[in-house]
């Protein structure tokens, strides 16, 4: 009879020694789990985005308006009622297909690869970065968000364009037509490929910055709140903990990301190129509308991001459970 001491310090006797060695997941099993986390993150955020799409489009409309901040005409109920009356109730689901495509790339990567980068950075630091520390979490979330935001920018741009208001009528029939029209819009001012790609990547700098700020504040605060509540014995793993942590995360990321979101939306809908990049956009908003303009649409931003955060994290935790993966 053989005796084996495992990494956890437990002793396995006889035939059980082999099973003890295999208790820790192999490299292929870990990679499979990372893949399932990507799928789970994409699916959960698609569900959340579908639920919050009407709030998202109202938020975009508010951010594009230039009235005095707080003016009644820019209140979310005024914008929503005006859309339903003039464009029909279906207008509240504008950009839905592009939004789903964006979530697969953007959220699949920013949330789905968060733990991958967290694990890799921890190993690379050789313990210098604590698993419980915010430094590791923020760095991992920032890397994941940078990749996801940059790759998803074309879908994000199409979504915003399809959600904007056009007095002369909608210029885009559907999502494929919007992609093609924006490509042609860029190609007309430069070489076919370079000009088309530059048009689809309009506002990518603001999109990436927003993605980093949002993901760092949203994912890290969710992770941190869960960790603190569990460590102090206030709550146990389950729906109540997931709801509580996501409520905090939704509010925090709404506050931090709204100003960048306003700049991003303005740049993405600037078809006539009146804005010369992020700095010029910020300057013109400050001069023409004042600093409170950066928080235009905050009510809808919080309503949308808060709803999206709650639904996405609860769904993500449920999907992980179905896939046999430990809670986040």
TrEMBL record:
Keywords for this protein: Membrane, Repeat, Transmembrane, Transmembrane helix, Transport
InterPro entries: MCP_dom_sf, MCP_transmembrane, Mito_Metabolite_Transporter
Keyword set includes DNA repair: no
Membrane topology qualifier: Multi-pass membrane protein
SUPFAM superfamilies in alphabetical order: Mitochondrial carrier
Subcellular location(s) per record: Membrane
Protein name, UniProt field: Mitochondrial carrier
A cellular component term, taken from the record's GO annotations: membrane
Gene3D superfamilies: Mitochondrial carrier domain
Membrane keyword on record: yes
Record-stated family: Belongs to the mitochondrial carrier (TC 2.A.29) family.
A Pfam family hit: Mito_carr
Solcar-type repeats, residues: 32-120, 132-228, 237-322
């Amino acid at each position: 009879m053989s005796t084996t001491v495992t990494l956890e310090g437990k002793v396995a006797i006889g035939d059980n020694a082999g099973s003890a060695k295999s208790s820790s997941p192999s490299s292929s099993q870990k990679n499979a789990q990372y893949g399932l986390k990507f799928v789970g993150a994409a699916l959960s955020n698609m569900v959340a985005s579908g639920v919050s799409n009407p709030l998202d489009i109202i938020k975009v409309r508010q951010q594009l308006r230039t009235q005095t901040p707080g003016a009644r005409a820019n209140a979310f109920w005024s914008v929503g009622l005006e859309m339903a009356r003039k464009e029909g109730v279906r207008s509240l689901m504008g950009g839905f297909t592009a939004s789903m495509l964006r979530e697969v790339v953007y959220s699949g990567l920013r949330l789905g690869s968060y733990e991958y980068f967290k694990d890799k950075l921890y190993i690379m630091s050789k313990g210098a970065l604590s698993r419980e520390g915010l430094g590791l979490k923020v760095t991992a979330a920032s890397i994941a968000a940078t990749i996801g935001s940059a790759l998803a920018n074309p879908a994000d741009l199409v979504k915003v364009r399809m959600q904007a208001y056009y007095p002369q009528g909608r210029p885009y029939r559907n999502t494929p037509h919007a992609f093609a029209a924006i490509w042609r819009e860029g190609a007309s001012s430069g070489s076919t490929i370079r000009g088309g790609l530059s048009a689809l990547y309009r506002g990518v700098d603001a999109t990436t910055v927003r993605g980093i700020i949002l993901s760092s504040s949203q994912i890290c605060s969710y992770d941190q709140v869960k960790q603190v509540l569990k460590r102090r014995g206030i709550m146990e793993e389950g729906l109540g903990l997931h709801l509580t942590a996501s409520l905090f995360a939704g509010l925090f990321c709404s506050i931090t990301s709204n100003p960048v979101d306003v700049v991003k939306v303005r740049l993405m809908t600037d078809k006539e190129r009146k804005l010369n990049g992020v700095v010029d956009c910020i300057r013109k908003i400050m001069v023409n509308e004042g600093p409170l303009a950066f928080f235009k649409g905050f009510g809808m931003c919080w309503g949308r991001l808060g709803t999206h955060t709650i639904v996405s994290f609860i769904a993500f935790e449920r999907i992980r459970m179905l896939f046999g993966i430990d809670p986040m």
